[in-house]
Recover the amino acids of this structure.
């Protein structure tokens, strides 16, 4: 809101006569940028339109049962397609990833900005940024050959023996259907996602923490708070909406992450409460099956319909994030909703689309 | 500025002239006008399973006929048949014999296609149970029950009955299967469907199925990695892949055999022992009743139009030469890739079928170069 009003004010300052005589360059520039901007919108609309047209047949055949169906059977003559196992897998792995990444990212951001000083802070910041430069297939390889064995043999049995015994919550950490914790599973995929979205969430969270006005911090310190109390009372409340935005950016990436997840998620079809069971996500099943999916039956159309579902899920989360940011921004009296952060969050919803 | 531009233009022109000179040189060498025939480029597309063998052959064949270049695209059997129908390739390749509707489609075009078995492969059941040192013996119904999730522990009575005297550990079975669509899955699930009524009714057979249990890996490597990493895992991989891993490989008994047979090049070759030509839509070497045959074996076919006239004389001759070479000298090379060569009887029948290929109504004899 603020920035639009400001822009309007700046234009109002230009005398009316000069505005009419805008130079050719300005006109061309404005036309060019508008063209490019509308091109982007056209591209997005076309993308969704093509997916909607090609992915329409499963909805025609199954109606909304496509979203709730649990079968995914490509055998000729027995075809039946339902998206629920993949929607479940996508949401669950992303949720695990974001739940693991937020505390670490916020902690890192505070450490880098508020606590650590000098070369240590710089080296750590560069290392975190380097995580973002690792291609996702490399994360996948590392996941299959390093992380997964450690998870299967050490971490997951430990979680099953401890958290698994807690009443209600324990069901999430119970042994899988074959009675152990072996094989790729939703939990391992969630952990990989958490590591993968760490750099982006940390980077944005750092920027946000940096914007906390100096007088707020100093006021807190002047009142006699310790550094921890200053962070808790001044820094965190002020940056809450920004941190929500940062997490949404990470969530967008987690929802769309494909190859690393496909390599460790187990690619199973069931829906089980325990996170130690194999599962599939929408991107992973598309990556696994599109190459040879037959276009004669509904198989290929169903994969396209899944892509459409993924876009809708991403848009829902983008919308939710805008709401969240509005609400948490309203809690901070210092400044009304910062537009920049909303933009970041919205990009978060889009950023992860395949 | 100007001189740079000039230099760039000159360099570009030089490359163009050079390129043209090179390609015309090649063309000259390839023309049969010089007296001795030496092959022409061709295109083919189809099955992925025999791709490594075909690549080996297409690389090796020019040593017999210089300039005979065959560009093979492993796009899948269905794609190969489709492209042959649309005449966008010179010949096709398929893992499954042509079905009635496909034969009819060719007949409607006034074309007849001959199917030449070229090479055999097998699917191995691999497992990761360190406590078992000797190869485990399994039969079809037991393997099906493992992949159905009915046999869930390695000390199950069904496994114990087949392996008397073997100390089976109390270890849950972890199933590993393919996550992508694959000919390997097609062969394996077809075998399970023949062996187990429940598999047939509950799951069925295709390039990808709805697996009741287990973890999926992409490609043979993915399944092998899945099997290697979980204690007590069982998976299926192509034979040529199984021999390169240090996993246990089961000896299998199909419903048509009385013995347990370990997969080997010989046992897979033996599966084609009773194969007879011409190939029928139902031709299958799965669960072969030939003696010593490994039950989960499969063969693959090159699809060649009987009438080679549309290809032109040179291509037709090159194709006949290539087939003759692949079925004789080429067979000796496939073992280096751990594929199984055709048994002699089938290779001979293939060569006899070669006489049916015609150019302008006449049989083309393989040229002397490939007979050496």
């Amino acid at each position: 809101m603020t920035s639009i009003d400001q822009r309007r004010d700046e234009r109002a300052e230009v005398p009316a006569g000069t505005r009419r005589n805008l130079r050719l360059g300005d006109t061309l520039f404005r036309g060019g940028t508008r063209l490019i901007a509308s091109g982007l919108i056209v591209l997005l609309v076309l993308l969704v339109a093509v997916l909607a047209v090609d992915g329409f047949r499963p909805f025609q055949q199954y109606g909304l049962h496509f979203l709730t169906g649990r079968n995914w059977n490509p055998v000729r003559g027995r075809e039946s397609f339902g998206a629920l196992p993949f929607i479940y897998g996508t949401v669950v792995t992303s949720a695990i990833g974001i739940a693991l990444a937020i505390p670490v990212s916020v902690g890192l951001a505070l450490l880098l900005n508020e606590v650590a000083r000098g070369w240590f802070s710089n080296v750590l910041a560069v290392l975190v940024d380097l995580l973002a430069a690792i291609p996702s297939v490399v994360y996948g390889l590392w996941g299959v050959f390093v992380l997964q064995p450690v998870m299967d043999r050490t971490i997951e049995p430990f979680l099953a023996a401890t958290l698994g015994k807690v009443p209600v919550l324990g069901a999430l950490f119970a042994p899988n259907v074959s009675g152990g914790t072996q094989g790729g599973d939703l939990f391992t995929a969630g952990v990989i996602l958490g590591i993968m979205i760490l750099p982006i969430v940390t980077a944005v969270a750092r920027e946000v923490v940096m914007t906390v006005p100096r007088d707020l911090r100093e006021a807190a310190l002047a009142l006699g708070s310790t550094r921890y109390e200053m962070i808790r009372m001044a820094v965190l409340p002020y940056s809450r909406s920004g941190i929500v935005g940062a997490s949404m950016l990470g969530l967008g990436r987690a929802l769309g992450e494909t190859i690393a997840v496909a390599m460790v998620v187990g690619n199973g079809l069931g829906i089980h409460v325990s996170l130690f069971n194999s599962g599939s996500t929408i991107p992973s099943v598309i990556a696994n099956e599109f190459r040879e999916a037959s276009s004669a039956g509904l198989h290929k159309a169903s994969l396209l319909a899944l892509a459409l579902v993924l876009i809708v899920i991403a848009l829902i989360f983008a919308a939710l994030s805008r709401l969240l940011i509005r609400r948490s921004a309203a809690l901070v009296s210092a400044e009304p909703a910062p537009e920049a952060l909303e933009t970041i969050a919205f990009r978060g919803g889009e950023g992860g689309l395949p | 500025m100007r001189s740079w531009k000039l230099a760039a233009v000159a360099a570009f022109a030089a490359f163009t002239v050079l390129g043209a000179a090179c390609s015309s040189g090649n063309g000259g060498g390839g023309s049969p006008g010089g007296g001795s025939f030496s092959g022409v480029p061709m295109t083919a597309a189809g099955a992925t399973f025999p791709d490594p063998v075909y690549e080996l052959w297409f690389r090796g064949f020019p040593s017999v006929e210089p300039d005979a270049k065959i560009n093979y695209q492993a796009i899948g059997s269905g794609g190969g048949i489709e492209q042959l129908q649309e005449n966008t390739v010179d010949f096709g390749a398929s893992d499954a014999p042509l079905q009635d509707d496909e034969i009819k489609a060719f007949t409607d075009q006034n074309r007849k296609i001959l199917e030449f078995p070229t090479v055999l492969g097998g699917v191995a059941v691999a497992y990761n149970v360190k406590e078992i040192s000797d190869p485990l013996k399994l039969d079809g119904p037991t393997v099906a029950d493992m992949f159905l999730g009915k046999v869930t522990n390695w000390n199950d009575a069904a496994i114990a009955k087949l392996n008397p005297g073997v100390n089976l550990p109390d270890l849950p079975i972890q199933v590993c299967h393919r996550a992508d669509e694959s000919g390997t899955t097609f062969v394996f699930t077809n075998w399970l469907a023949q062996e187990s009524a429940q598999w047939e009714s509950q799951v069925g057979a295709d390039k990808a199925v709805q697996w009741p249990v287990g973890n999926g890996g992409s490609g043979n490597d993915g399944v092998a990695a899945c099997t290697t990493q979980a204690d007590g895992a069982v998976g299926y991989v192509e034979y040529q892949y199984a021999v390169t891993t240090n996993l246990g490989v089961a000896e299998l008994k199909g419903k048509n055999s009385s013995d347990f047979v370990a997969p080997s090049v010989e046992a897979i070759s033996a599966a084609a022992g009773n194969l007879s030509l011409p190939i029928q839509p139902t031709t299958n070497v799965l669960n072969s009743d030939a003696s010593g045959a490994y039950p989960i074996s499969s063969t693959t076919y090159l699809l060649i139009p009987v009438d080679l006239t549309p290809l032109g004389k040179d291509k037709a001759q090159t194709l006949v030469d290539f087939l003759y070479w692949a079925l004789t000298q080429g067979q000796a090379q496939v073992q280096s890739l751990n594929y199984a060569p055709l048994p002699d009887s089938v290779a001979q029948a293939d060569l006899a079928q070669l006489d049916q290929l015609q150019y302008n109504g006449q049989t083309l004899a393989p040229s002397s170069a490939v007979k050496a």
